[in-house]
């Protein structure tokens, strides 16, 4: 009797991957201290983009985050009220505003990223055997490819 069920359908694999990523994201938020900031994951993502890419327009932020201009405006309002970002007129087009990070924002993002990386490094050291490290590298490459794919379809 063959007990090997064969390959799983892509939908089942997709659901397992989604569940695993959701659990890992939640764990990273907890381990990094993100909850203590009082900011949502979306707001922190926008803040990290401003730190990394700034000075930057709201339209560019919306494109980077794959969200609407309205969603970005809401996140920016919270971040401005928190003193984490500043806006100033674009010197090339005064109708636009450029967002830049306050030094405290740069420190906050660095602290959160360090916390996440530290947790992941410790977890990898604890649960991934040396002969499995290459598998982790392959999995990362596959995840990067999945993140970059353009299927040309609408969003849910």
Automatic annotation (TrEMBL):
Checking InterPro entries in the record gives: HTH-type_Bedaq_tolerance, HTH_MarR-typ, WH-like_DNA-bd_sf, WH_DNA-bd_sf
Annotated Gene Ontology MF terms?
DNA binding; DNA-binding transcription factor activity
- UniProt entry tagged with the keyword Protein biosynthesis: no
What keywords are annotated for this sequence in UniProt?
A: DNA-binding
What SMART domains does the annotation carry? Answer: HTH_MARR (SM00347)
What PROSITE patterns does this protein map onto?
HTH_MARR_2 (PS50995)
Parts forming coiled coils? none
Q: Which one Pfam family would you cite for this protein?
A: MarR_2
Q: Per the database record, which ranges form the HTH marR-type domain?
A: 10-148
Q: What is this protein called?
A: DNA-binding transcriptional regulator, MarR family
Which species is the source of this protein?
Streptosporangium subroseum
């Amino acid at each position: 009797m063959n007990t090997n069920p064969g390959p799983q359908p892509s939908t089942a694999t997709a659901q397992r991957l989604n569940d695993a990523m959701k659990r890992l994201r939640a764990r990273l938020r907890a381990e990094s201290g993100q909850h203590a900031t009082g900011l949502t994951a979306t707001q922190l993502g926008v803040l990290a983009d401003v730190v990394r890419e700034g000075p930057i327009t709201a339209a560019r932020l919306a494109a980077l985050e794959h969200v609407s201009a309205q969603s970005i405006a809401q996140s920016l309002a919270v971040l401005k009220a928190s003193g984490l970002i500043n806006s100033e007129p674009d010197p090339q087009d005064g109708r636009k505003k450029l967002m830049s990070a306050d030094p405290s924002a740069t420190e906050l993002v660095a602290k959160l990223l360090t916390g996440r990386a530290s947790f992941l490094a410790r977890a990898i050291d604890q649960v991934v055997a040396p002969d499995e490290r290459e598998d982790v590298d392959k999995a990362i490459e596959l995840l990067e490819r999945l993140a970059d794919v353009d299927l040309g379809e609408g969003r849910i």
